[in-house]
Amino acid sequence: MASSRQLLKSISSSARLFSNHRTQNQTRGYKVAVLGAAGGIGQPCGLLMKMNPLVTELRLYDIAGTPGVAADVSHINTKAQVKGYSQADDGEDGLKNALKDCDLVIIPAGVPRKPGMTRDDLFKINAGIVKGLVEACAENCPKAMLNIISNPVNSTVPIAAETLKQKGVYDKKKLFGVTTLDVVRAKTFYAEKKGLETAKVDVPVIGGHAGVTILPLFSQATPKAALTDDEIDALTKRTQDGGTEVVAAKAGKGSATLSMAYAGALFGDACLRAKNGEAGVVECTYVESDVVPGVEFFATKVSLGREGVEKIHGTGALTAYEQAGLDGMMSELKDSIQKGLDFAKGA
Ligand SMILES: NC(=O)c1ccc[n+]([C@@H]2O[C@H](COP(=O)([O-])OP(=O)(O)OC[C@H]3O[C@@H](n4cnc5c(N)ncnc54)[C@H](O)[C@@H]3O)[C@@H](O)[C@H]2O)c1
Ligand SMILES: O=C(O)C[C@H](O)C(=O)O
């Protein structure tokens, strides 16, 4: 068992995940808000963003409960100043003040799945929550990068895009659906299967974030390891069903929270590093894209820069199995995008 000294050492070296680049770039400080900050994802995500040296102000917003979360997180001895805002304590000003001039807004607000539900079953409640929060972002921090975690991501990102358009502040370079957890899972499952060092593994995941729309590209995984067709099929299905695996294991107590907070903090950090001028920041993310004809939003590898999306990469060469996966997701992805756009347009 690790001694507490070893444990602390390992936590601080994970914290260096967030700080390796800072010797080369002049470090600026950024204002970051987490909306839904008292929730299962919001609390650990707030904690991880408090550990990020690029964050100077961390605003934690939820309907209720955020003053307690903020007081707790604020005692951690890193430089970010933490403040909690809630509708219950601050009324309408809570959200406004949480968002004022933010550089990055991370949104895990909304209800999670229970066993037997699809992500689309969350649309009824979460669509309105995301629309309302994005309207407030448009009014209070129109230049912020927005990281949308709330499900169904395939629809909530189009809702956010349309909402920002209606407010006259849409910048497609700054709106991201967070699909990092799919990448995290694909890397973990591939490394476990092939006995590889997990930290050195990369697996791109394209498409969207629900069932068959999640398409891991094991043909492009690095380091390369031989995989049989059956292994590829099993790894692909496990990645697509990763969220459902957690929902089933939690047996009615929600969906992935800790691994999502980790993934959300990694993606948030990538946005901040790019904003801070670090070169070569590339992440898979669901953005407005013309890589695949017929769908307006799609996840592939994206190079990030100071202003957000710098370059959207293509899918790369696909195997016949992957091409079939891409063809097979199109109608679901199209429908989910249209559903989001229609909702935001009030159609
Ligand atoms: N993108 C992904 O990969 C991914 C992964 C896991 C979960 N999720 C999604 O993230 C969302 C949150 O999951 P969770 O487990 O944290 O749920 P949770 O219920 O534990 O927390 C959600 C929080 O959002 C808050 N909230 C609701 N409406 C709000 C509003 N209008 N303003 C501010 N806060 C509001 C709630 O009060 C609650 O504290 C769900 O929709 C879930 O499906 C996405
Ligand atoms: O599966 C869910 O409902 C939550 C999330 O989208 C996940 O992939 O874990």
UniProtKB/TrEMBL annotation:
Catalysis performed (reactions): (S)-malate + NAD(+) = oxaloacetate + NADH + H(+)
> Which residues bind substrate per the record?
113, 119, 151, 185
**Keyword annotations for this protein?**
NAD, Oxidoreductase, Tricarboxylic acid cycle
Source domain of life: Eukaryota
- Provide the Lactate/malate dehydrogenase C-terminal domain boundaries: 179-343
Give the binding site residues for NAD(+). 36-42, 62, 126, 149-151, 260
Task: Give start and end of each Lactate/malate dehydrogenase N-terminal domain.
Answer: 31-177
Q: Which GO terms describe its cellular component?
A: mitochondrion
Annotated catalytic residues: 209 (proton acceptor)
Keyword Zinc present in the record's keywords: the answer is: no
A Gene Ontology annotation in the biological process aspect, one of them, is: tricarboxylic acid cycle
Q: Name one GO molecular function term.
A: L-malate dehydrogenase (NAD+) activity
SUPFAM superfamilies reported in the protein's UniProt record:
LDH C-terminal domain-like, NAD(P)-binding Rossmann-fold domains
UniProt-listed Enzyme Commission number(s): 1.1.1.37
Please name the NCBIfam families in this protein's record.
Answer: MDH_euk_gproteo (TIGR01772)
PANTHER family xref list: MALATE AND LACTATE DEHYDROGENASE, MALATE DEHYDROGENASE
Assembly and interactions?
Homodimer.
Family label: Belongs to the LDH/MDH superfamily. MDH type 1 family.
Stated name of the protein: Malate dehydrogenase
